[in-house]
Write a structure and sequence with these properties.
Elements lengths: L3 E2 L1 H8 L14 E5 L29 E2 L4 E6 L2 E5 L3 E17 L11 E20 L7 E4 L3
Antiparallel strand pairs: 1-7, 2-3, 2-6, 4-5, 5-8, 6-7
Amino acid sequence: MASGLYVVTYRDVLDDSQLALNLDDETHKFALYTSARTPNYNADASYSSTNEISGTGYTAGGKVVTGTALSLPGAGVLKYSSDAVSWPASTLTGVRQVDMYADAITTPTADPLIVGIDLVTDYNTANGTLLLTPHANGLFTIDFTP
């Protein structure tokens, strides 16, 4: 697995379907998956419950991400960041992949995927807290002038 942006979503933002993706929206969600989730960044378009984590303290569909923000940290660079997201008092096994999706969007594609994050290793909690803290460089950066 690897981390990446879901190409279909960004194509739909830029083509004539005009997907109204507002990255600053505070209704996007992080859904958690096992290592059986194999994202296809070129073809996957929508949130799916296939291989989604289940366990105490986790609700199917994931959790709302707050503090989403676009910024310009340098010449030609766009940064997308958010606050940390946690699942306190959770008992989860094998958390490996995180998908961020736009839960509020219903057309032309419902729940379009935004970014996938590979945690590289499986994480477990036993009545503990799973905390996802974005890197200081954000969830992703795009350099438009490489």
